[in-house]
């Protein structure tokens, strides 16, 4: 198996806005190694969000190639993308995106239900919550949890399907400094212990410094890496 879990070559994305073509990506190429922790940074309008939607299989490029975990997903239809997205990508959002009326356990179990996963789904969800330190909160609803605890539920949900990559979009953006630091500690621990590849979208230079590599996007291209 290739050492590259993400390999994108000459990606373009063109949106039609009335009579105008907007070029969000302009031949962007990048590779991310299995087990890497990468920060993606860039100003508003840089193409960063478009890139993340493509890497997360939420959208397709206008042209170019994208291989995720060795599979060419650039030309898949919506149903194929949905299947790959469920099996290979875990998402963590700034706003947590938890079901408000469901328990922490039910929220974490949700991806397994979508995937029609075999085996004991409830046990796998319970183990994921234990891994993020919430074994005593499995029956709590989001409103009964702190922001940091809600984000831990979201991390457990992202991990439960054992994805090839985890896409974290400003994962500490709605948290105070202490809780944000704890969430970043947890993500890095999951990377070390499980070898999960982390792609973190952030405007926070401190978070970027804690990753292995920062990729800066500007005008639809990779501007710099360090």
Describe what this molecule looks like in 3D.
The chain has 226 residues and is of the alpha/beta class. The protein is 34% helix and 30% strand. The chain has one domain: P-loop containing nucleotide triphosphate hydrolases (Rossmann fold, 3-Layer(aba) Sandwich), CATH 3.40.50. It has helices at 48-55, 78-88, 104-114, 121-131, 147-159, 177-194, 205-209, and strands at 4-17, 20-33, 37-41, 63-68, 71-72, 89-93, 165-169, 197-201, 213-218, 221-225. The strands form two sheets. It has a six-stranded mixed β-sheet with strand order 6-7-8-3-9-10, sandwiched between helices. Strands 2-1-4-5 form a four-stranded antiparallel β-sheet, covered by helices on one side. A hairpin with a 2-residue loop joins strand 9 (213-218) and strand 10. The longest helix is centred in the last third of the chain and has 18 residues, at 177-194.
Main features:
alpha/beta, Rossmann fold, four-stranded antiparallel β-sheet, 34% helix
Q: Helix content range of the residues, please?
A: 25-40%
Q: Kindly report how far apart the N and C termini lie.
A: 26 Å
Structural class category: alpha/beta
Query: What gross morphology would you assign?
Result: globular
Q: Indicate how many domains the architecture comprises.
A: 1
């Amino acid at each position: 198996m290739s050492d590259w879990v993400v390999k994108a070559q000459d990606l373009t994305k063109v949106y039609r806005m009335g009579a105008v073509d907007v070029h969000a990506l302009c031949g962007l190429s990048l590779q991310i190694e299995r087990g890497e922790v990468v920060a993606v940074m860039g100003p508003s309008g840089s193409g960063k969000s478009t890139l993340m939607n493509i890497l997360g299989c939420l959208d397709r490029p206008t042209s170019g190639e994208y291989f995720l975990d060795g599979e060419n997903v650039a030309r898949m239809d919506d149903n194929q993308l949905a299947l790959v997205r469920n099996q290979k990508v875990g998402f963590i959002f700034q706003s947590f995106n938890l079901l408000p009326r469901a328990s922490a356990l039910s929220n974490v179990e949700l991806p397994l239900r979508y995937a029609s996963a075999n085996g004991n789904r409830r046990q796998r969800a319970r183990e994921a919550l234990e891994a993020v330190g919430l074994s005593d909160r499995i029956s709590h609803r989001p409103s009964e949890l702190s922001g940091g605890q809600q984000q831990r539920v979201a991390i457990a949900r992202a991990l439960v399907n054992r994805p090839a990559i985890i896409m974290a979009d400003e994962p500490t953006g709605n948290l105070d400094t202490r809780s944000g630091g704890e969430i970043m500690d947890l993500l890095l621990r999951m990377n070390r212990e499980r070898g999960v590849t982390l792609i973190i979208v952030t405007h926070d230079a401190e978070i970027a410094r804690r990753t292995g590599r920062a990729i800066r996007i500007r005008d639809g291209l990779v501007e710099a890496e360090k």
